[in-house]
Amino acid sequence: MKYLTLTLAALSLLIFTSCQEEKAATPAKAPVAEITLDPTLFSQKLDEGVTISEARKLKAGDQVTVNGKIMGTNTVFVDGRASFVMGDPEKLTSCDLREGDSCKSPWDVCCEDSKDITANTLSVQLADENGMVLKTGLKGKSGLKELALLTVQGTVSPQSSEQAMIINATAIQVK
After folding, report:
1. Which residue, among 18, 162, 169, 159, has the nearest Cα to 84 in the 3D structure?
2. List of residues 6+ apart from 80 with CB closer than 8 A
3. 17: pLDDT confidence band, cut at 50, 70 and 90?
4. pTM
5. Which residue in 62, 91, 114, 129 has its CB near the most CB atoms, within 10 A?
6. Per DSSP, what are the bridge partners of residue 87?
7. Which first-to-last residue range defines the signal peptide (predicted)?
8. For 64, which DSSP code?
9. pLDDT tens string 134-175
């Protein structure tokens, strides 16, 4: 009996020790450095822009200034990326404006027809010189939040499609 107890104790010690060694061998993830955004990005006074439906007629590489509201989906900001969804408040009604709507995401437009949502929303992103979205969140920066009215200036991204327009922003003015 004493031999069995010692054997079980030794096996337990070996198992727990090997588990701890595995944890120690796993490299810790390095913290991601926060990207500093160009200070002029939010400081420019922009001319009045076009509607989103008008902007969606443009082609990749075209310059555009567009008006809208941060709304359109359940999650309008992309965590850890410089990207958000913008909708046309003249054509789409966000849940916060629907009487009796108890939607947990008031910036959503879930009651709208999907064709209307596609025609009147677009994605805005900040991209590097290679067209890659910057690895930093935008929510809370310079007044960017759900339901904010804004004007965005930029270029239609080459990654845009008929179903999903993307603007590579060069200036954003929150109203």
Report:
1. 169
2. 32, 135, 136, 137
3. very low
4. 0.79
5. 91
6. 69, 121
7. 1-24
8. E
9. 999 999 999 999 999 999 999 999 999 999 999 999 999 999
